[in-house]
Protein backbone atom coordinates (compact mmCIF):
# COMPACT_ATOMS: atom_id res chain seq x y z
CA UNK A 1 0.00 0.00 0.00
CA UNK A 2 1.27 3.43 -0.87
CA UNK A 3 2.04 5.29 2.38
CA UNK A 4 0.75 8.49 0.84
CA UNK A 5 -2.66 6.88 0.37
CA UNK A 6 -2.80 5.61 3.92
CA UNK A 7 -5.33 7.74 5.84
CA UNK A 8 -3.32 7.25 9.02
CA UNK A 9 -0.37 9.08 7.44
CA UNK A 10 -2.34 12.06 6.26
CA UNK A 11 -1.72 15.26 8.18
CA UNK A 12 -4.53 15.89 10.65
CA UNK A 13 -6.39 12.74 9.58
CA UNK A 14 -6.94 11.60 13.14
CA UNK A 15 -6.48 14.92 14.86
CA UNK A 16 -9.42 15.70 17.07
CA UNK A 17 -10.50 19.29 17.51
CA UNK A 18 -9.42 20.89 20.76
CA UNK A 19 -12.06 21.95 23.33
CA UNK A 20 -11.46 25.57 22.40
CA UNK A 21 -11.88 24.68 18.74
CA UNK A 22 -15.25 23.09 19.47
CA UNK A 23 -16.30 26.14 21.47
CA UNK A 24 -15.33 28.44 18.60
CA UNK A 25 -17.63 26.51 16.27
CA UNK A 26 -20.61 26.87 18.61
CA UNK A 27 -23.26 29.41 17.55
CA UNK A 28 -23.19 32.60 19.66
CA UNK A 29 -26.69 31.89 20.96
CA UNK A 30 -25.59 28.48 22.23
CA UNK A 31 -22.49 29.93 23.88
CA UNK A 32 -24.62 32.58 25.62
CA UNK A 33 -27.04 29.92 26.85
CA UNK A 34 -24.31 27.65 28.22
CA UNK A 35 -22.64 30.56 30.00
CA UNK A 36 -26.00 31.55 31.48
CA UNK A 37 -26.61 27.99 32.67
CA UNK A 38 -23.19 27.95 34.29
CA UNK A 39 -23.91 31.23 36.08
CA UNK A 40 -27.31 29.99 37.24
CA UNK A 41 -25.76 26.78 38.55
CA UNK A 42 -23.15 28.70 40.55
CA UNK A 43 -25.77 31.06 41.97
CA UNK A 44 -28.07 28.29 43.15
CA UNK A 45 -25.14 26.30 44.54
CA UNK A 46 -24.18 29.29 46.69
CA UNK A 47 -27.79 29.69 47.82
CA UNK A 48 -28.08 26.01 48.72
CA UNK A 49 -24.87 26.16 50.75
CA UNK A 50 -26.14 29.28 52.53
CA UNK A 51 -29.50 27.62 53.21
CA UNK A 52 -27.91 24.45 54.61
CA UNK A 53 -25.57 26.51 56.80
CA UNK A 54 -28.43 28.65 58.13
CA UNK A 55 -30.57 25.56 58.69
CA UNK A 56 -27.86 23.83 60.74
CA UNK A 57 -27.08 27.02 62.63
CA UNK A 58 -30.72 27.52 63.61
CA UNK A 59 -30.76 24.34 65.69
CA UNK A 60 -34.42 23.69 64.82
CA UNK A 61 -35.02 19.94 64.33
CA UNK A 62 -35.95 18.75 60.87
CA UNK A 63 -39.47 17.48 60.23
CA UNK A 64 -41.02 20.00 62.61
CA UNK A 65 -43.46 20.97 59.84
CA UNK A 66 -44.27 18.96 56.71
CA UNK A 67 -42.90 20.26 53.44
CA UNK A 68 -45.73 21.99 51.54
CA UNK A 69 -47.61 19.41 49.50
CA UNK A 70 -47.86 21.94 46.69
CA UNK A 71 -44.10 21.69 46.25
CA UNK A 72 -44.49 17.96 45.66
CA UNK A 73 -47.35 18.51 43.20
CA UNK A 74 -45.40 21.20 41.37
CA UNK A 75 -42.47 18.80 41.01
CA UNK A 76 -44.69 16.26 39.26
CA UNK A 77 -46.09 18.98 37.00
CA UNK A 78 -42.65 20.22 36.01
CA UNK A 79 -41.44 16.70 35.23
CA UNK A 80 -44.49 16.26 33.00
CA UNK A 81 -43.68 19.52 31.24
CA UNK A 82 -40.18 18.25 30.59
CA UNK A 83 -41.68 15.15 28.98
CA UNK A 84 -43.92 17.18 26.68
CA UNK A 85 -40.99 19.42 25.75
CA UNK A 86 -38.94 16.34 24.87
CA UNK A 87 -41.50 15.48 22.17
CA UNK A 88 -40.98 18.79 20.35
CA UNK A 89 -37.82 17.91 18.34
CA UNK A 90 -39.46 14.74 17.01
CA UNK A 91 -42.57 16.63 15.89
CA UNK A 92 -40.42 19.31 14.30
CA UNK A 93 -38.47 16.67 12.37
CA UNK A 94 -41.77 15.19 11.16
CA UNK A 95 -42.88 18.60 9.79
CA UNK A 96 -45.95 18.39 12.02
CA UNK A 97 -46.35 22.00 13.12
CA UNK A 98 -49.90 21.44 14.35
CA UNK A 99 -48.81 18.79 16.84
CA UNK A 100 -45.72 20.84 17.67
CA UNK A 101 -47.90 23.82 18.56
CA UNK A 102 -50.06 21.65 20.84
CA UNK A 103 -46.96 20.16 22.43
CA UNK A 104 -45.44 23.57 23.15
CA UNK A 105 -48.79 24.89 24.34
CA UNK A 106 -49.10 21.99 26.79
CA UNK A 107 -45.60 22.67 28.07
CA UNK A 108 -46.41 26.34 28.55
CA UNK A 109 -49.63 25.49 30.39
CA UNK A 110 -47.80 23.10 32.71
CA UNK A 111 -45.23 25.80 33.40
CA UNK A 112 -48.03 28.17 34.43
CA UNK A 113 -49.50 25.48 36.70
CA UNK A 114 -46.09 24.95 38.28
CA UNK A 115 -45.72 28.66 39.04
CA UNK A 116 -49.21 28.74 40.57
CA UNK A 117 -48.48 25.73 42.76
CA UNK A 118 -45.31 27.37 43.96
CA UNK A 119 -47.35 30.38 45.08
CA UNK A 120 -49.70 28.07 46.97
CA UNK A 121 -46.66 26.44 48.53
CA UNK A 122 -45.46 29.81 49.84
CA UNK A 123 -48.89 30.41 51.37
CA UNK A 124 -48.71 27.01 53.03
CA UNK A 125 -45.29 27.89 54.45
CA UNK A 126 -46.78 31.01 56.01
CA UNK A 127 -49.62 28.94 57.45
CA UNK A 128 -47.03 26.68 59.09
CA UNK A 129 -45.38 29.69 60.71
CA UNK A 130 -42.34 29.87 58.44
CA UNK A 131 -41.61 33.61 58.07
CA UNK A 132 -40.15 35.42 55.08
CA UNK A 133 -37.25 36.49 57.27
CA UNK A 134 -35.95 36.40 60.77
CA UNK A 135 -33.97 38.50 63.22
CA UNK A 136 -30.94 39.82 61.42
CA UNK A 137 -31.89 37.89 58.32
CA UNK A 138 -30.60 34.65 59.88
CA UNK A 139 -33.77 32.61 59.52
CA UNK A 140 -33.34 29.62 57.23
CA UNK A 141 -36.99 29.91 56.19
CA UNK A 142 -36.27 32.94 54.05
CA UNK A 143 -33.98 30.85 51.86
CA UNK A 144 -36.86 28.53 50.96
CA UNK A 145 -38.85 31.50 49.67
CA UNK A 146 -35.83 33.07 47.98
CA UNK A 147 -34.61 29.92 46.24
CA UNK A 148 -38.09 28.91 45.12
CA UNK A 149 -38.92 32.41 43.87
CA UNK A 150 -35.66 32.68 41.93
CA UNK A 151 -36.32 29.34 40.31
CA UNK A 152 -39.80 30.48 39.28
CA UNK A 153 -38.28 33.67 37.85
CA UNK A 154 -35.91 31.63 35.68
CA UNK A 155 -38.78 29.39 34.62
CA UNK A 156 -40.80 32.47 33.60
CA UNK A 157 -37.87 33.57 31.45
CA UNK A 158 -38.02 30.24 29.64
CA UNK A 159 -41.79 30.54 29.34
CA UNK A 160 -41.45 33.88 27.55
CA UNK A 161 -39.05 32.32 25.06
CA UNK A 162 -41.41 29.35 24.73
CA UNK A 163 -44.39 31.63 24.12
CA UNK A 164 -42.53 33.55 21.40
CA UNK A 165 -41.55 30.32 19.66
CA UNK A 166 -45.10 28.95 19.99
CA UNK A 167 -46.58 32.05 18.36
CA UNK A 168 -44.07 31.72 15.53
CA UNK A 169 -45.06 28.09 15.01
CA UNK A 170 -48.77 28.99 14.94
CA UNK A 171 -48.11 31.81 12.45
CA UNK A 172 -46.11 29.61 10.06
CA UNK A 173 -48.52 26.68 10.32
CA UNK A 174 -51.24 28.63 8.52
CA UNK A 175 -49.40 28.75 5.20
CA UNK A 176 -47.74 25.85 3.35
CA UNK A 177 -44.89 27.98 2.02
CA UNK A 178 -44.15 29.51 5.43
CA UNK A 179 -44.30 26.03 6.93
CA UNK A 180 -41.70 24.74 4.48
CA UNK A 181 -39.39 27.70 5.09
CA UNK A 182 -39.79 27.39 8.86
CA UNK A 183 -39.09 23.65 8.93
CA UNK A 184 -36.02 23.93 6.69
CA UNK A 185 -34.52 26.88 8.58
CA UNK A 186 -31.61 25.63 10.75
CA UNK A 187 -31.90 28.73 12.94
CA UNK A 188 -35.35 27.72 14.20
CA UNK A 189 -34.20 24.13 14.68
CA UNK A 190 -31.35 25.41 16.83
CA UNK A 191 -33.71 27.67 18.77
CA UNK A 192 -35.97 24.74 19.57
CA UNK A 193 -33.01 22.62 20.68
CA UNK A 194 -31.68 25.37 22.95
CA UNK A 195 -35.15 25.98 24.35
CA UNK A 196 -35.41 22.30 25.22
CA UNK A 197 -31.97 22.38 26.83
CA UNK A 198 -32.94 25.31 29.03
CA UNK A 199 -36.28 23.79 29.99
CA UNK A 200 -34.76 20.45 30.97
CA UNK A 201 -32.07 22.28 32.93
CA UNK A 202 -34.68 24.20 34.92
CA UNK A 203 -36.52 20.93 35.52
CA UNK A 204 -33.43 19.11 36.83
CA UNK A 205 -32.51 22.16 38.89
CA UNK A 206 -35.86 22.12 40.68
CA UNK A 207 -35.65 18.38 41.34
CA UNK A 208 -32.28 18.97 43.04
CA UNK A 209 -33.66 21.91 45.04
CA UNK A 210 -36.72 19.90 46.05
CA UNK A 211 -34.49 17.05 47.23
CA UNK A 212 -32.48 19.50 49.36
CA UNK A 213 -35.67 20.94 50.86
CA UNK A 214 -37.03 17.46 51.48
CA UNK A 215 -33.86 16.44 53.33
CA UNK A 216 -33.24 19.65 55.27
CA UNK A 217 -36.72 21.08 55.91
TrEMBL record:
InterPro entries: Cyt_c/ubiquinol_Oxase_su3, Cyt_c_oxidase-like_su3, Cyt_c_oxidase_su3-like_sf, Cyt_c_oxidase_su3_a-hlx. The chain crosses the membrane at residues 31-54, 100-122, 142-171, 192-216. The keyword Transmembrane helix applies. One of its GO terms (molecular function) is cytochrome-c oxidase activity. It is a multi-pass membrane protein. It is found in: Cell membrane. One of its GO terms (biological process) is aerobic electron transport chain. Residues 29-217 form the Heme-copper oxidase subunit III family profile domain. One of its GO terms (cellular component) is plasma membrane. Keywords: Cell membrane, Membrane, Transmembrane, Transmembrane helix. Belongs to the cytochrome c oxidase subunit 3 family. This is Cytochrome c oxidase subunit III. It comes from Hymenobacter properus.
Amino acid sequence: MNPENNPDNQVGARRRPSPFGRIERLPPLAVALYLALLAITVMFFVLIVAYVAARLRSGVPTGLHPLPRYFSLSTIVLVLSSYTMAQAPRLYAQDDLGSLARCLGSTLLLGCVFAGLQGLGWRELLAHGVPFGGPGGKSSGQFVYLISALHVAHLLGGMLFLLAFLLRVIHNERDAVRTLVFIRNPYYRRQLRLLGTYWHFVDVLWVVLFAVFLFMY
